[in-house]
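Protein Entry — a single chain follows
Fields — amino acid sequence, structure tokens
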Amino acid sequence: MARTIHTSIEIDAPADRVWDILINFDDYLKWNPFITNIQGEAVQGAQLEVFIRPSGGKGMTFKSKVIKCEPNMEFRWKGKLFVPGLFDGEHSFQINPIGDNRVEFVQQENFSGTLVGLVLRMIGKATQQGFEAMNLALKTQAEGEGSG
């Protein structure tokens, strides 16, 4: 059983600006309400330790591996809960140019594993809200002071 959470937002900023904010993990705590900490590097094959805090939730840390890192275009990782096949997630951020200094930012996670139904019933709505909150915060950050 597989499920997907998909969100997107239009941002009035060039792709490279959005990318620079997205991969600057050290600043996540300052602006990102959902993914508040990432340890590791935005390099294909790198191991990441990601801390997420869904709205109203305690938060959790999970380990993941960067499976795609295309500057100004796409950043993707795959993580798992405990052991592979139980509850796995492939998380992606895509930056799609839609005009001069304007992009569509897409954040998506494809979930799979035997516990997908159960886990998403518990955290699916909060996760969707977390994606949307992060997207909006990224938009605010990218369009804010010093942009352009």
